[in-house]
Design brief:
It contains 16 helices and 10 strands. The chain is of the alpha+beta class.
């Protein structure tokens, strides 16, 4: 559950390079004309140039969080503070023996290139054109991967969640169901309108429906009124449609009764005729559901003679053939997919939120039914993803508590991370230096 949070920090570092030319353009003139050391963290210097490059990144992060970014010197100071914490964390990682192998840096570099719709060589050229270098890019990626591993090792175990908090979260979800898909029972009287009814006949039938409405409003028994006026099947069950989730009622009925209190009545028109509806019961659903997706994919793993660029091109061609009706997704998956799902036509079965790595799940969640995404790069390789179905599936009490626990962990992650990072920063030696006159 924590990978998506950690992934954010890596993505932020990558964004810094994507914005490097913007940073140089937008930097205050007095900061961009020369370079000098502005702080030292455990003998590791931070230069003014580093701060300037990170300014647009911080501004973008605050914007994504819905927070107003400071301006001028305040923004430079906030950026420097973040860099101080980062250097302290990197030093702590070094002291605790955390390293990142070259293969992991290669994969991160490949993912960044794919996200930018470039080859790795193309990415290097872009970085160089923006005033940086491939070496600096790889060093930055390595540092962000180290921070990711350090955070993964230290933060999750510090997050404490009590049973009381889980109970409260479960209750909140249950109470919220009354606004999303409550259990409802409606009383129903249908005054049917024939397909070729004249305006005069329609007016007479509307008057009949209004009379039935008036009878109910003055307190007459629903069962008696239904037997006298209704053409619906429910007339023989006292006009009651039965207690069921709202999504099992016609949307017209749900919309018409959504603002009613129990016992209140309304009149609506449909293609079938005039409906008198009485809200008998409305309560939080006893059966909670979770949205599940059924995707399938074709996975190619770059290596040997197959480069990542070639894998993406091959899957893009598969997509073109499938959409043109010249190839079948399942057959291509059986023939070419390098995943265990290949023999099943790439079918991954029904899955809930959080079961896949973020780079896969992000794309999957945006797809419409039957839509095929462009090739997606993950740590496992290159995927061609299609969504077959979606459904709201019942969720057990245990699954509900697990969801509540995971949701609480995500909410507490940022606060726990900040507290831990400040602890590490507090143990580091930090010296701030004034700009040379």
């Amino acid at each position: 559950m924590f990978y998506s949070k950690l992934h954010f920090y890596l993505a932020s570092a990558l964004l810094a390079f994507a914005l490097s030319s913007t940073a140089q353009t937008n930097a205050p003139p007095k900061s961009s004309n020369r370079d000098f050391i502005v702080a030292v963290v455990d003998s590791v210097p931070i230069t003014n140039h580093e701060v300037v490059l990170r300014v647009p990144l911080l501004r973008e992060q605050l914007k994504q969080q819905g927070r107003l970014a400071p301006e001028g010197e305040a923004l430079l100071k906030a950026t420097l503070d973040r860099l101080v914490v980062e250097k302290a964390l990197l030093q702590h990682a070094k002291e605790t023996g955390i390293t990142v192998e070259d293969d992991a840096v290669d994969q991160a570099e490949q993912r960044l290139a794919a996200q930018s719709q470039l080859s790795v060589d193309g990415l290097h050229k872009k970085v160089k054109a923006e005033g940086s270098s491939a070496e600096r890019l790889r060093q930055n990626l390595r540092e962000q991967l180290i921070l990711q591993r350090l955070t993964d090792r230290n933060v999750p175990g510090r997050i404490k969640i009590s049973d009381i908090e889980i109970d409260q979260a479960v209750r909140q979800r249950q109470n919220a169901s009354i606004d999303t898909n409550p259990d409802m029972e409606l009383g129903h009287i249908l005054v049917a309108v024939p397909e070729k009814a004249s305006p005069a006949e329609i007016a007479a039938l509307q008057s009949k429906a209004q009379t039935a409405l008036n009878h109910l409003k003055r307190g007459d028994d629903l069962s008696r009124v239904a037997k006298e006026f209704s053409n619906a099947a429910e007339r023989d069950t006292g006009g009651l449609m039965g207690l069921r989730p709202a999504n099992r009622y016609p949307s017209l009925f749900v919309d018409a009764t959504k603002s009613l209190s129990e016992g209140e009545i309304t009149l609506v028109r449909s293609g079938a005729g005039f409906h008198v509806l009485k809200l008998i019961t409305k309560r939080a659903s006893s059966i909670l559901t979770v949205t599940q997706t059924r995707p399938r994919h074709i996975l190619l793993r770059p290596g040997g003679q197959l480069s990542q660029t070639a894998a993406r091109a091959q899957l893009a061609e598969y997509k073109r053939q499938i959409e043109a009706g010249k190839a079948d997704f399942a057959k291509l998956a059986r023939a070419h997919s390098q995943d265990a799902s290949g023999p099943d036509g790439g079918d991954l079965g029904w899955v809930s939120l959080g079961m896949f790595v973020p780079e896969f799940e992000e794309v999957m969640n945006k797809l419409q039914i039957s839509q095929i995404a462009d090739p997606v790069v993950s740590r496992f390789g290159v995927h061609l993803i299609q969504v077959l179905e979606r459904r709201d599936a019942p969720i057990s009490e245990r699954e509900l508590r697990d969801l509540a626990r995971n949701g609480l962990r995500d909410k507490k992650f940022d606060e726990t991370y900040q507290l831990w990072a400040q602890e590490v920063r507090g143990r580091a030696y930090v010296e701030y230096r004034d700009a040379p006159q």
